[in-house]
TrEMBL record:
Record protein name field: Glycoside hydrolase family 38 central domain-containing protein
PANTHER family: ALPHA-MANNOSIDASE 2C1, MANNOSYLGLYCERATE HYDROLASE
Cross-referenced InterPro entries: Gal_mutarotase_sf_dom, Glyco_hydro/deAcase_b/a-brl, Glyco_hydro_38_cen, Glyco_hydro_38_cen_sf, Glyco_hydro_38_N, Glyco_hydro_38_N_sf, Glyco_hydro_57/38_cen_sf
Family classification: Belongs to the glycosyl hydrolase 38 family.
A biological process from GO: mannose metabolic process
Length: 854
């Protein structure tokens, strides 16, 4: 057999890890000088710039005079760039972030002349089952990757990867890694030994005659003696063809072959570590990232559409800046948190700056919309529905700043019954500097309230008003009680446990919600159980300070969970309870079927993992959860993988701890239990219980010989004291339901993450702005009938200026959608295609549409 040896020259460019982004940007400048000069002198050479276009931005920022030469090489196909903007993680970040990363990456590459249409993700810690469809909708028909494959998936490393919706692309597992042929030896004898090892692996796993030899590594400079090396290889394998090639040519060699079909996520850890429990590393950073994703995709983009009704400019430039900053934190190491303390601080600071931009922009839009109201009463409250369909009996939580503590809220002439959640007296001069400048002593009441709005149209604004009352002292409406209830549930504290009565079944779930603390001997890549553990759960807890708040249609139960626990691993070994963990739990119950939980906690413990526990009392072998614009089913326990991993010497234990997006559900023929999460993305199901990891604390970037990960350390063995998260404060948001309704779990999760929001036009503000030129109440709405399909994006198209909507069908059945006039097919590039009147959207299919603005 004559082999076609294709050498793929590249560099893998981690922008940050145990080194900072600033350091690599300086190194990149020098690297690109060498690459460009080498490619200009050697026209037979192709060089892949790691599949991420951000390297062009980073390089040209420091070397603007080199842009024309760079463009020339990209147009010739000598320098291959894109399709990603950054090398994103493909499990931890939002599905929209993955799509937008490809969008901006391809746009940037095309700005330079061409884009590499290959789903190159060499070092990512696993791959979502939805990626074949996402790639396909961008015109990408293949993916090349290293981590996540094993013979349980397919015997050969070349295969057809079938996505959850049925989309099929070529999959190529880099059997010798993206770094398999790094720094090929100049010495002929040494090169022969090296190449024989490489070819032995490739001969075993390659499906056709082509052999992909990956000549590159992390920040590896271009190998300038590649021509002499190729001559030596030709001498070794005289019947074989040897050339510098590209990914596309390798895919061409697979066409016409009968390839194995592979389905599902690619997350096996046989040949390379996947780090499944990196999902709970540095939760402070992960939760901040998720907050920013939700603020962009769920709040600010639809809010900006409403702003257009007042001729307020849609801020594409702000979105692009913020998203690209986010993408910089989405690389597998960056969002994974497996970095030095210095790098994690840099990531957190960059995300914090994005948060400041987004929060200010959201407040500005709401204030402008309120100021533009034609209502002569300036005590305006505006409510916002960010979903494109009508919603009823929705809870609104919002803040008021008032002169009196007993203010009233009105919906037209009808007074709105609200629940006062908390209230404090503050100095108005700390809000508005003009108050301080005038030496005025004005005290105001800062209140957080919750109320229910009867109905609000899709993508619309609803206008309320408020009035000051007569009381100038703080109000307190808390009562010492231990239970709350609605028509569906009764939730009560009894014997230091939280119990749930499901009324229509007359069934009690004992100890329905709790928090578990246990040891963690792992590092920034993986949780690992310690050799000596001490697990504390509800039987070890004290519940104290039970309080209840009630209004006509809402009730809130508050209490503290208090644990005496080991301060660190040394104390755990000795079973000494010399530390304390206090969790403030708030349970909110309205008339809906979802129970909302907020958990406040400040950490003082080391070497510890904390998990929220939902007791479902449902025995099942499968788990339903959401992934990227889809729903997946997985085993509760990965029996096959766990039965062979030690004998087959997998790189790490394939633990049954999995990643999800926003919900996890257990069900049987009669019952269902679902837990919803805002930003927590790691679950495990054991003994009918769903465990959601809150956070974990540990001491090192990398450790060796972990129980679940034997052998060398991942990363490097340096201390990272910031990872102990000492005195870090958290606010976790969860919800759960035990009731089947007409809405599927994906719909409920989207609404849980996208509540109706309220804004008060305040008397005191940090900044002064003018009243908009356009004075009107926004009366537009967008009431689509989605029949169980879920919105992923609602924004203005960058290409046409029209309303762009992306939905997906999470159900198991095909759904027929019917649209009014002015609706068009679109694509991932937000371009207008054919007229769309009705469409049968398949199970797990993603649909992009444009709606003309009236």
């Amino acid at each position: 057999m004559s082999r076609d040896i294709k050498i793929l020259m590249h560099t893998h460019w981690d922008r940050e890890w145990y080194f900072t982004k600033a350091e690599t940007q300086v190194l990149l400048r020098n690297h690109m000088f060498e690459v460009i000069e080498f490619l200009e002198k050697n026209e037979d050479i192709i060089y892949v710039l790691d599949g991420q276009s951000v390297m062009l931005d980073d390089f040209i920022e420091f070397a603007p005079k080199w842009k024309e030469r760079t463009e020339s090489l990209v147009k010739k196909g000598a320098l291959r760039v894109g399709p990603w903007y950054t090398q994103t993680d493909l499990l931890l970040v939002h599905g929209e972030s993955i799509i937008r990363n490809l969008y901006y990456g391809m746009e940037k590459a095309l700005e330079y002349g061409d884009v590499m249409k290959v789903g190159y993700a060499p070092d990512t810690f696993g791959h979502s089952a939805q990626m074949p469809q996402i790639y396909s909708q961008f015109g990408i028909d293949s993916t090349f990757f290293w981590r996540g494959y094993s013979e349980l998936k397919g015997e050969k490393s070349d295969f057809l990867w079938k996505g959850i919706d049925g989309s099929v692309i070529f999959g190529v597992n880099l059997a010798t890694g993206y770094q398999g042929a790094k720094y090929l030896e100049s010495d002929k004898d040494e090169l022969k030994v090296r190449m024989d090892k490489i070819m032995k692996v490739l001969d075993k796993y390659s499906a056709g005659d082509a052999r992909l030899v990956m000549n590159g590594h992390d920040q590896m400079p271009i190998q300038k003696n590649i021509h002499s090396i190729m001559e030596n290889i030709r001498d070794f394998y005289k019947g074989d063809k040897v050339s510098v090639s590209d990914f596309e040519s390798y895919v061409d060699s697979l066409k016409g072959l009968v390839l194995e079909s592979v389905e599902g996520e690619l997350n096996h850890s046989k040949h390379a570590r996947i780090h499944k429990t990196i999902t709970s590393t540095r939760m402070d950073i992960k939760l901040l990232n998720t907050e920013l994703e939700y603020k962009i995709y769920n709040v600010l983009e639809p809010l900006a559409l409403l702003g257009k009704e007042l001729n307020i400019d849609y801020p594409h430039e702000i979105f692009e800046k913020c998203l690209k900053e986010l993408f910089g934190a989405h690389a597998h190491d960056s969002i994974g948190g497996c970095n030095s303390d210095l790098v994690n601080r840099d990531i957190k600071q960059r995300l914090t700056q994005v948060k400041e931009i987004l929060d200010t922009q959201i407040e500005l839009y709401m204030r402008l919309i309120s100021l533009a109201s034609t209502n002569e009463n300036r005590n305006i409250v505006t409510l916002y529905n960010y979903l494109p369909y009508k919603r009823s009996n929705e809870k609104v939580e919002m803040e008021f700043i008032t002169r009196t503590s007993d203010f009233k809220i009105f919906n037209g002439d009808k007074e709105v019954d609200y629940l006062l959640l908390n209230q404090e007296l503050v100095d108005a001069g700390l809000i508005d500097r003009q108050v301080a400048a005038r030496l005025l002593d004005i005290k105001v009441f800062k209140s957080k309230v919750a109320f229910v709005i009867d109905e609000i149209d899709g993508l619309s604004v609803k206008y309320l008003t408020y009035e000051d009352g007569e009381i100038y002292s703080l109000r307190s409406e808390k009562k010492v009680e231990t239970s709350v209830e609605n028509s569906l549930y009764k939730i009560y504290v009894e014997n230091n446990k939280l119990n749930l009565l499901i009324k229509n079944e007359d069934r009690v779930i004992d100890d329905v919600f709790s928090i578990e603390t246990s040891g963690d001997a792992g590092d920034s890549y993986d949780y690992s159980p310690p050799h000596k553990d001490l697990i504390l759960n509800s039987k070890d807890v004290k519940i104290e300070k039970c309080e209840v708040l009630k209004s006509k249609n809402q009730s809130v139960l508050k209490y503290d969970l208090i644990y005496s626990a080991p301060k660190n691993q040394k104390s755990r070994d000795e079973k000494v309870l010399d530390g304390k963990a206090i969790f403030g739990v708030t349970i909110s119950l309205g008339e809906g079927d979802v129970v909302n939980l907020a958990i406040d906690h400040t950490n003082y413990l080391e070497d510890t993992r904390f998990r929220a526990v939902l007791n479902t009392e449902i025995l099942t072998n499968t788990v339903e959860s959401d992934s990227h614009l889809c729903v997946v089913e997985k085993p509760v326990y990965f029996e096959k993988e766990l039965s062979i991993w030690e004998e087959d010497k997998w790189a790490e234990k394939p633990v049954s701890i999995e990643t999800f997006n926003s919900y996890v559900s257990l069900k049987d023929e009669k019952e269902i239990a679902t837990i919803f999460s805002y930003g927590l993305k790691e679950y495990e199901v054991v003994d009918k219980k769903i465990f959601i990891t809150l956070f974990r604390t540990f001491s090192h970037l990398g450790k060796r010989e972990l129980i679940n990960r034997p052998g060398r350390p991942s990363g490097i063995e340096i201390e990272t004291p910031d990872n102990l998260l000492y005195k870090e404060s958290f606010n976790f948001k969860l919800g759960f339901t035990f009731v089947k309704t007409d809405k599927n779990s994906s719909e409920k999760a989207k609404e849980f993450l996208t509540p109706v929001e309220g804004y008060q036009l305040k008397e005191f503000n940090r900044f002064n702005i003018n009243i908009p030129n356009v004075r009107k109440n926004i009366t537009t709405n967008l009431n689509l009938t989605l029949k169980g399909c879920v919105v992923s994006a609602l924004k203005e198209s960058e290409k046409t200026g029209e309303t762009f909507i992306r939905v997906f069908n999470p159900t198991e059945k095909e759904v027929e959608l019917v649209f009014n006039e002015g609706v068009f097919f679109s694509n991932m590039f937000e371009e207008k295609l054919d007229t769309l009147k009705e469409y049968k959207i398949k199970s797990q299919e993603i649909l992009n549409i444009l709606i003309e603005r009236k």
